[in-house]
């Protein structure tokens, strides 16, 4: 019997509605109709306002804190399962809670594993995400995971800048693999920052491994939260003789004093995607959309085509 490919339907969680509309447009479909009812105490209930029986549906929503973003995704998946959707693909441009991917001290949770199990328990049959904080998080799932790289978005932009004496930098040891992948694609040098933390989001000491004298430096990371690491690294590199420092960060969490730090720092530009909505509070931030990347992969997944090219850093 030949495989019959039915229509795919695309829906978006509340905070990812703008990105969802962009993805749906690039996919060549209308964003599906979901109504969310909210109780006085804050409890909410999403409702699909169209039939999804027997269809493949894509639910777009980043799960960055607060917890309501993850909860809405879980409720959307559960509602789709109970409405007899054939395949339920959770599209998580940003997979939240991913920094808790291991026990780094006694008596703490592994939140990334818990979130993976919750998504599967709710009914997700496939996960599509981008630039996980740690590659091994894919192993927390029993369902297929398509882990996309934002380098396919950032590399063309970096090449368009035509920066002389380009050097790629990692703001910490953990990001060295990502930095080396970018440097290989751009045929540039690499430097690494070594940092020690007093506690979460607080850096006690930072050193630079490598020479940035006379270089145009691009820092590469998967996310920017309080911007403490990036701004400290940028200032250190300028002190060590760099000509300019830019940063590429896929997921712009930008919490706490992040915007103030960016404005005061010597960072020339912060380049991010729209995996998370960005407040237009700094002229230093440039947003590159990930909509085309996700739409392209979703179309290939729906039509059972290979997406291996999107896994290449």
What would you note in describing this structure?
The chain has 313 residues and is an alpha/beta fold. The chain folds into two domains: 163 residues, Rossmann fold (3-Layer(aba) Sandwich), CATH 3.40.50.2020; 138 residues, 3-Layer(aba) Sandwich (Rossmann fold). Helices cover 29% and strands 27% of the residues. The model has no long low-confidence stretch (mean pLDDT 93).
Compose a concise summary of this entry:
The chain is α/β, with parallel strands linked by helices. Helices cover 29% and strands 27% of the residues.
Assign the CATH architecture of the largest domain: 3-Layer(aba) Sandwich
The N- to C-terminal Cα distance equals 37 Å
Class from secondary-structure proportions: alpha/beta
- CATH fold-level assignment of the largest domain: Rossmann fold
Please, how many helices? 8
Q: What share of the residues does DSSP label as strand, in percent?
A: 25-35%
Helix content: 25-40%
Protein name: ribose-phosphate diphosphokinase
Pfam families: Pribosyl_synth, Pribosyltran_N
GO molecular function, one term: ATP binding
Catalytic activity: D-ribose 5-phosphate + ATP = 5-phospho-alpha-D-ribose 1-diphosphate + AMP + H(+)
